[in-house]
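Please annotate this fold before class:
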Amino acid sequence: DYGVFWFEQGEGGRWTRRTIDAAWSQAHASTLVDLNADGRLDLVTGKRFMAHNGSDPGEREPLGVYWYESRPAAATAGPASASAARDRRGSPASRRGSASAAGGGPSPQVLAENMPVNDLAVNVKGDLYFSDTAGKKIWFLPKGGTPRVVDEGIESPNGVLFSPDQTLLYVSDYVGQLSWVFQIQPDGSLTHKQKYFYAHMPDAATRSSSDGMAVDADGRVYIATALGVQVFDQIGKCHAIIPAPQRLALSNVEFGGPNFDEMYVTNGDKVFKRKTKVKGVMSWRAAVKPPPPRL
């Protein structure tokens, strides 16, 4: 349905849903990053196109990549609030309106228009990469610049992830059994494209369902798949599979918590978390050099 939301945890573990923006639908990729270097994390997210075979509301409405700037506000306003009254069928430009939801939060800034976004990643410089699954493309949006295609041809590009030192870009392939790695050049272009992560698949499956990804400080890569979270070392070998909590494919995996040592997964209609012995790496922070890979 329409809306970008956040959930506030209260006493007794109860969750309350807070609306950021209810003016558009099919928000899919999202990440937190301090784009304007004010010390507060902002929300960057994008809209998909025809995500579920024509069964979602607003599927043909304008596409875009949106930045919700975080500003001090009342507790109920959340980390980034924005207008809920803008025309749902307006052009992306109309979404720059100044109306605000409770708490005085800002309307989103449009970073790119007419861009179908599946997943995205932002580095410490504020440069952004995102996947266009239907178009079989990877896009690069430099901070303050215009987007350009930096790769084409992956069958179903999905998750997008930086290595801890931000020298490599990983891209999962939802259909294929092998996902990909690229070297990132100083101008943002991608070179040395290579199949890298061999995902295990359920018996008789025709696709890996490799989706969202995360990385830890030791360089391990975690991919959400049909079997669960598959854990790969730096050289691309799968060492473990953490089973999905429910008999459904996982759609995303992230690290969070005060020390970034809690793993969160989205599985069907629920979000699960577990404590880990590793710490995740957030790409909007300074690059982290992992230890050398061990064979």
Q: What stands out?
A: The first strand starts at residue 2 and ends at 9. The mean pLDDT is 83.
